[in-house]
Amino acid sequence: MSNIKVCLDAGHYGKYNQSPAVETYYESDMNWKLHLMLKEELEKYGVEVITTRDDQQTDKPLFERGETSQGCDLFLSIHSNSSANGDVKETVDRPVAIVQLDGMGDELGQLLANCVARVMETKQAGQFYSRSGRRGEYYGVLRGAAAVGTMGILLEHSFHTNTRSTLWLLDDSNLRKLAVNEAKVIYDYFTERKEARTVDIQLKVLRKGENRGDPQIQNLQRILKDMGYYDMEVDGSFGGGTQRAVKAFQEDRAIDIDGIVGRETWIQLLTK
Fold first, then answer.
1. How far, in Å, are 136, 150, 153, 219, 235 from residue 74 at the CA level?
2. Domains (range + CATH), the chain
C-alpha cells in the first residue's frame, strides 16, 4: 500500500445538468463514470480510495459529502462546467480546479487542471481559483472537507456548453485517459510530499569531514555505489572521494553542485 488515502465524489446524482450543446450528455453520468475509473486507476498504485455515495441515484447533502473525507489526504469532486445561463459557448473550454481558501490545494489543483487541459487538448489553459461565501467556502463539499482538515478540490473537466468538449467527454475511452493521467498526477504529488517529509524528519545534512562509522554516511555511500558514482570503501567517513561522488551526482541531476547532501540531494538520491 502507498499510505495515500483519497475520497472521490461524483458531483450530482440521477440525471442532472443536460448539455445544451449535445442533448445525450448529462454531467451526472460523466461524473459517475469518471470517478469510478479514477478509483480503479488510483487503486493500481496501492492508493486507498473511498467514495461519497454508493450509487448514482442516491443524493447526499453537500457538506456531508465533504465530511466523508475525514482521515484522507485528498477530497476530489468530479464535475464538468457550464457557461453563464447554460448558453452554448464554443470558445470556452478551460479546465478549472476550485480549491479551498487556505491555499493548501493550490499546487495540486493547478497540476490537475493542467493535466485535464493536456489530455483533452483544450484551447484554453487550465487554471485554479477559490471562492468564498457567507460561511467560508462557497462550495458545500469543500466546506465539509475543510471542516475535517482534508485538502479539497472541485475539478471541472472543461465545459459541457462547448460542443467539442461535450462530445469528447461522451467517449468512455477518453474518460479512461483522464482517469489514468489524473491518477498519476495525484499519486506522484502525494508520494513526493511524503518522501520529502521523511527526508526532513529522518535524514540529516551530510558534508565533508563527518566522522568515520556514521550509519547515514554509510547509507549515502551505498546508494552512490549502487548508482555508479562511488567506487571506494563504504566506511561511513565523508572524505574527498565521497564529496566528489556527491558532486558528480548533483551535476547529473541539475542540483547545486556544493558536495553537501541536503534535503534536495537526499530526495533525488532516494527517488532514483
1. 19, 6, 8, 33, 43
2. 5-198 (3.40.630.40), 205-270 (1.10.101.10)
